[in-house]
UniProtKB/TrEMBL annotation:
Protein name: Exostosin GT47 domain-containing protein
Membrane topology reported for the UniProt record: Single-pass type II membrane protein
One Pfam family recorded for the sequence: Exostosin_GT47
PANTHER family: EXOSTOSIN HEPARAN SULFATE GLYCOSYLTRANSFERASE -RELATED, XYLOGLUCAN GALACTOSYLTRANSFERASE GT15-RELATED
Gene Ontology molecular function, alphabetical: glycosyltransferase activity
Any Gene Ontology CC annotation: Golgi membrane
Broad class of the protein's primary localization: Golgi
TM stretches of this protein: 31-52
Keyword line: Glycosyltransferase, Golgi apparatus, Membrane, Signal-anchor, Transferase, Transmembrane, Transmembrane helix
Annotated localization: Golgi apparatus membrane
Length: 480
């Protein structure tokens, strides 16, 4: 590329416009100073390249081109990772690997299965098979714990094709801290200071690294397998849940991907892991086609348990509606032998249902939402916080394209009935929503981390990475 063309490509820019959070609203003079500094570096490198490349050895010439490419940025066709490089912090093992090595400490007496089982196969758990099902079921289904996303994500990051050992060229920096598993260790029987001790030590470790200093951690991100509320403990009372990790001053700078976000801008919700982890794009297409051919004999269904301790529980009202309707199939997860933990049992129910009810439970979101989408079943929500304000990188902004909303208040007051509302959905709208739900399947699944998903980069992991890179690019452009 000629000198003047290279300069034009570098210097002519467009305003950064992002539909994600943290859009800049004012010009920051530090942006211009940073631009002038980069421009000066570029000129010096190019002059060096023009004067000395003629006599330089081949290896030095190649190295010089790599430096120009990383600092100036030639076209993406020459470097497909341009703007996508991620640097991974090599954390002390106490923050991640030791938790897996000593995973028995994470298992509670009330757990049906040891957590040591779930850390198998890069975090997706042991493979499960059913002799009564087809090969597409037997080769891609695993016993995956819904709270183990940080392990799954870390193992996917290790195989991310745009990793770099040079943090200077990185667009984002990943912190592989298993925050949720660490908190799980200290949730019961420990005081507030113990619950945040590891997080406090992590922040102190990060602040000593040179990578932290450039943006005070605003280009750093981590992943949590627990909801954001678990890390925003407001007092030191022993009875209060969770830790105050996200209230630590420096922790507020980092972005956190979590299965359920709060109202804070640096917390972004990503899908719960399901039990379906394909290793090729063809397997995803096969599954989508299988869901299109299902005989859906139930108008709607619900899999879940009641919440008797919660006053005005939407779940209890839903169970009453389902039991009173011949159009509904109920899987009561509080009953003996309910098999709600069996993914084949859930897929069999959701695969035979047109609509799947998704009320809040212990929190606003639930894994069942993604199980229903995986089964091609149209989700029905009763609170906007269950999906619409959560998964902005993975679900359509226009929620009417893939779901139905019923007011929980109207349900409890008797002004709304579930069966009547769903019967009012036209056949054309029903078919359109069903197809949209099936189209979403690749976006909400995490591929098998032991192999790279072929033919697509649109699974839940890659969409999350794209979102992180865009968010940090916006922060950097705003001079934040």
């Amino acid at each position: 590329m000629k000198f003047h063309a290279l300069m034009r490509e570098f210097c002519v820019g467009k305003p950064i416009i992002s539909k994600w959070r943290n859009q800049c609203r004012r010009t920051n003079y530090s942006t211009y100073l940073w631009f002038l500094l980069k421009f000066s570096i570029v000129v010096l490198i190019l002059l060096h390249h023009l004067f000395f490349s003629m006599d330089a050895p081949t290896s030095s010439h190649h190295h010089s081109k790599k430096k120009i490419r990383s600092l100036v940025g030639e076209s993406s066709s020459q470097d497909s990772c341009l703007g996508r490089y991620i640097y991974i912090h090599d954390l002390p093992k106490r923050f991640n690997q030791d938790l897996l090595t000593n995973c028995q400490i994470l298992t509670r007496p009330t757990d049906k299965t040891s957590m040591s089982v779930y850390v198998q196969n890069s975090g997706i758990g042991p493979q499960i098979q059913n002799s009564d099902t087809s090969d597409i079921w037997n080769s891609n289904w695993f016993s995956t714990n819904q709270f183990i996303l940080e392990v799954i994500f870390h193992n996917r990051m290790k195989k991310y094709k745009c990793l770099t050992n040079d943090s200077i060229v990185a667009s984002a920096i990943f912190v592989p801290y298993y925050a949720g598993l660490d908190l799980r260790h200290y949730l019961w029987g420990f005081n507030a200071s113990m619950r945040v001790s590891s997080g406090f030590d992590l922040i102190n470790w990060l602040k000593q690294r040179p990578q932290w200093k450039s943006m005070s951690g605003k280009d750093h991100f981590l992943v949590s397998g627990r909801i954001a509320r678990d890390f925003r403990r407001k007092s030191d009372r022993k009875s209060e849940w969770g830790s105050n990790f996200r209230f630590l001053p420096d922790c507020k700078n980092m972005s956190m991907l979590t299965i359920e976000s709060g109202p804070w801008e640096n917390e972004i919700a990503v899908p719960y892991p399901t039990s379906f982890h394909p290793s090729t794009g063809d397997q995803v297409l096969q599954w989508q086609n299988l869901m299109r051919t299902q005989n859906r004999s139930y108008l709607f269904s619900f899999a879940g348990g009641s919440r008797n301790r919660q006053k005005k529980s939407t779940r209890n009202e839903i169970i009453r509606h389902c039991q009173a309707s011949k159009l509904c199939k109920l899987l009561d997860c509080n009953s003996v032998g309910h098999k709600c933990d069996d993914p084949f049992n859930l897929m069999n129910l959701f695969g035979r249902s047109i609509f799947c009810l998704q009320p809040p439970g212990d929190s606003l979101t639930r894994k069942s939402t993604f199980d229903s989408i995986l089964a091609g079943c149209i989700p029905v929500f009763f609170h906007p916080g269950s999906a619409y304000t959560q998964y902005l990188w993975h679900l359509p902004n226009n929620y009417t394209k893939y779901s139905v909303y019923i007011s929980a208040k109207g349900l409890r007051s008797g002004k709304a009935r579930i069966d009547e509302t769903l019967l009012q959905v036209s056949k054309d709208d029903e078919l359109s929503m069903s197809e949209e739900v099936i189209r979403l399947i690749p976006w909400i699944i995490y591929a098998d981390g032991r192999s790279r998903l072929e033919s697509t980069e649109d699974d839940a992991f890659y969409l999350a990475i794209k979102g992180v890179l865009k968010r940090i690019e916006t922060l950097r452009g705003c001079g934040i």
